[in-house]
């Protein structure tokens, strides 16, 4: 009886959690994505579906984000357009993320013009994809930076050829102010930020760096202020794009003996 009551309680709690839905026709990639997201986004109920038509069963749920896999299809493909329309009808309050095998600028722009809040290429590292989803869940927008044919911001080099996210458009004066602030991160703050980049919670960061959780929280507050970030995910994305490369090359396992 106790097990039945416990299971019933857990089911009832899950029904009140915000929902993220993965729509992927292929079982193996869908299951892999599902397992990763359930581990990384445990504050959400993660549901997986083979087609958008299954969204009908979520009408009474608080669906916050729908991740739609389109594989090799183009954004303008009629079937993709139909899927967008169905998602908008079934989950009008949900943001839409697209998982695509393409990452060219015209495809990205076409997706954003259709209201997509998050564009994920299958060539992205998993930690960047998760960071992008977290950004969207707190109200941001994630899209790869253009890698060719676009005006580049001065003194900015994307850390990899596929690009990361441009969370917000900022003017030149604000960009330069952020660059200076991020470059002013202390060595301790850089180590904490490196752990944030891995998606670690405060408790694990504290254990790895031999700090108290309150000290970790203090460092994160300082980092967010210096990065002009609204949350830790945005801070990581800005740090990846703007902190000088030599500041990121911290020796693995380097000991930290003093608090900052």
Structural features:
260 residues; alpha/beta; Rossmann fold; Arc Repressor Mutant, subunit A; 2 domains; five-stranded parallel sheet; 47% helix; disordered C terminus
Account of the protein in words:
- The chain folds into two domains: 2-137, 3-Layer(aba) Sandwich (Rossmann fold); 172-248, Arc Repressor Mutant, subunit A, CATH 1.10.10.10.
- It has eleven helices and five strands.
- The radius of gyration is 20 Å and the shape is globular.
- The chain has helices spanning 2-14, 27-40, 78-90, 105-113, 126-137, 172-183, 187-197, 202-209, 213-227, 232-242, 245-248; strands at residues 19-23, 45-49, 63-71, 95-100, 118-121.
- 47% of the residues lie in helices and 11% in strands.
- With 260 residues, the protein is of the alpha/beta class.
- The model is unreliable at 5-13, 147-181 and 243-260 (pLDDT under 50).
- The longest helix has 15 residues, at 213-227.
- Strand 1, helix 2 and strand 2 form a beta-alpha-beta unit.
- The protein has a five-stranded parallel β-sheet with strand order 2-1-3-4-5, sandwiched between helices.
């Amino acid at each position: 009886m106790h097990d039945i009551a416990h299971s019933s309680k857990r089911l009832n709690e899950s029904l009140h959690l915000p929902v993220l839905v993965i729509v992927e026709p292929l079982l193996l990639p869908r299951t892999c994505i599902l397992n990763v997201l359930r581990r990384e986004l445990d504050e959400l109920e993660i549901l997986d579906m083979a087609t958008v038509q299954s969204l009908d069963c979520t009408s009474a749920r608080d669906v916050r984000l729908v991740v739609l896999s389109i594989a090799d299809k183009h954004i303008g493909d009629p079937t993709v357009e139909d899927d967008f329309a169905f998602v908008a009808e079934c989950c009008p309050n949900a943001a839409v993320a697209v998982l695509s095998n393409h990452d060219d600028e015209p495809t990205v722009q076409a997706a954003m013009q259709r209201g997509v809040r998050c564009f994920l290429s299958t060539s992205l590292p998993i930690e960047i994809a998760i960071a992008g989803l977290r950004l969207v869940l707190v109200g941001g927008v994630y899209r790869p930076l253009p890698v060719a044919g676009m005006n580049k911001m001065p003194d900015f080099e994307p850390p990899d050829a596929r690009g990361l996210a441009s969370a917000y458009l900022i003017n030149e004066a604000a960009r330069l102010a952020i660059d200076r602030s991020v470059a002013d991160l202390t060595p301790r703050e850089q180590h904490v930020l490196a752990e944030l980049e891995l998606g670690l919670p405060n408790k694990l960061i504290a254990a790895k760096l031999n700090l108290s959780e309150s000290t970790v929280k203090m460092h994160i507050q300082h980092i967010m202020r210096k990065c002009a970030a609204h949350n830790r995910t945005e801070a990581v994305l800005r740090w990846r794009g703007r902190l000088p490369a030599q500041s990121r090359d911290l020796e693995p396992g380097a000991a930290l003996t003093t608090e900052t």
